[in-house]
């Protein structure tokens, strides 16, 4: 459920595009590109950015690609963002944030009726998304607090950090000690028959906001690992897969990666998964490339692992409330209104890009 990004995985959203340069004949950053026969998101990313990490291309073209990111129709025009996160070479980061904040200040409600603050809970050490050391508490925390001031909202809030994700699910949300947790993956709740116990519980006991972020989960193996050449999910038969505790595996369950075909280990932290892979204790480490890249950089082992370029699953992150909270759905309605406005104005992208820029600057 939680992560940390590669400097080239700067995500953007197509709705934020106001003006675009003419389509390029080759894959180049800061342009648009017309899909040719045989192209894939990975091959386009490799040509434009020198990496198969296609996350930012996916998000820049979210509306066009969300239905089937693995099938690119010839002639489709894709936005290829700049490497530093800007949508175009002449667009400054944070300009939309400034404009939207000024507009909100000008339209601030005069309603003085008391409304209890909405109580958010999140956790530290999920760089750059949630951590008290980051500006505004991290990208996802900034999205939550900004949503509370957009979409017609003007609501006070409180942010707390409880560094035990499962406690959010088991106690803090069901007891209404907190109203909303930042942030969780949403299972495909239309496929309860193939989901495991935890994923079914997430579907039946909790409600999710609109998506706040979409990402691809990659499969990491050792360079000479047994499963490095897998090209179908069934090729992972017999594999031991590591995904940390509180990171749901519903995306893998719907692909048929369940017992007895595969087995799982769930350590407390993402770094433990990376260490287990390097020691040969597991065959695969499945998580988004942002987190795994950070893990292997920290361990000085980026040359020892490889990401499968052919297989990935797509995950969306959401704000989460308990169905037991009588005000939970009204809180999600407020957040959804704010998220929708942020997507439409481009402020969502600006928060993401500035947050990633801050994080990448800290790493240098």
Task: Give an account of the 3D structure.
The chain is α/β, with parallel strands linked by helices and 364 residues long. It folds into three domains: 19-80, Membrane-bound Lytic Murein Transglycosylase D, Chain A (Roll); 95-213 and 317-363, Periplasmic binding protein-like II (D-Maltodextrin-Binding Protein, domain 2, 3-Layer(aba) Sandwich); 215-315, D-Maltodextrin-Binding Protein, domain 2. The protein is built from twelve helices and twelve strands. Strands 4, 5, 6, 7, 8, 9, 10, 11 and 12 form a nine-stranded mixed sheet that branches. A three-stranded mixed sheet has the order 1-2-3.
Beta-strand fraction estimate? 15-25%
Shape: globular
Query: In sequence order, what are the helices and strands, one letter per element?
Result: EEHHHEHEHEHEHEEEHEHEHEHH
Domain unit count = 3
Low-confidence stretches: 1-25
Give the averaged pLDDT, no decimals: 85
* Rg on CA atoms, Å: 20 Å
Distance between the termini: 25 Å
Outline of the structure:
The chain is an alpha/beta fold. It has helices spanning 41-49, 55-60, 62-65, 95-106, 139-147, 165-172, 197-205, 250-253, 270-278, 289-298, 328-345, 347-363; strands at residues 23-24, 31-34, 77-80, 118-122, 157-161, 180-185, 206-208, 213-222, 240-242, 263-265, 284-288, 305-322.
């Amino acid at each position: 459920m939680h992560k940390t990004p590669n400097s080239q995985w700067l995500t953007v959203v197509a709705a934020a595009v106001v003006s675009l340069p003419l389509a390029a004949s080759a894959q180049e950053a800061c342009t648009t590109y017309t899909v040719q026969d045989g192209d894939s998101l990975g091959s386009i990313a490799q040509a434009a950015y020198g990496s198969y990490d296609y996350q930012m291309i996916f998000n820049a073209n979210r509306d066009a690609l969300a239905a089937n990111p693995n099938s690119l129709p010839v002639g489709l025009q894709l936005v290829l963002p700049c490497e530093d996160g800007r949508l175009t070479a002449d667009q400054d980061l944070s300009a939309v944030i400034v404009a939207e904040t000024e507009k909100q200040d000008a339209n601030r409600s005069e309603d003085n009726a008391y409304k209890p603050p909405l109580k958010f809970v999140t956790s530290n050490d999920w760089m750059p998304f949630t951590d008290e050391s980051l500006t505004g508490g991290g990208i996802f925390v900034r999205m939550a607090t900004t949503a509370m001031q957009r979409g017609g909202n003007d609501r006070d809030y409180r942010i707390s950090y409880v560094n035990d994700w499962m406690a959010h699910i088991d106690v803090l949300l069901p007891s209404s000690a907190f109203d909303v947790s930042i942030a969780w993956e949403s299972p495909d709740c239309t496929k309860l028959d193939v989901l495991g116990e935890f994923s079914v519980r997430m579907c039946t006991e909790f409600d999710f906001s609109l998506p706040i972020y979409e990402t691809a989960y990659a499969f990491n193996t050792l360079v000479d690992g047994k499963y490095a050449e897998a090209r179908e999910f069934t090729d992972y038969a017999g594999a031991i897969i590591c995904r940390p505790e509180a990171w749901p595996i519903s995306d893998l369950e719907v692909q048929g990666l369940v017992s007895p075909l595969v087995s799982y280990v769930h350590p407390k932290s993402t770094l433990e998964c990376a260490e287990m892979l390097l020691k040969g204790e597991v065959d695969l480490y499945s998580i988004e490339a942002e987190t795994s890249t950070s893990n292997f950089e920290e361990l000085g082992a980026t040359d020892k692992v490889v990401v499968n370029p052919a297989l990935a699953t797509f995950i969306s992150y959401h704000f989460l409330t308990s169905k037991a909270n009588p005000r939970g759905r009204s809180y999600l309605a407020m957040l959804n209104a704010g998220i929708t406005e942020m997507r439409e104005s481009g402020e969502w992208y600006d928060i993401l890009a500035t947050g990633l820029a801050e994080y990448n600057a800290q790493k240098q």
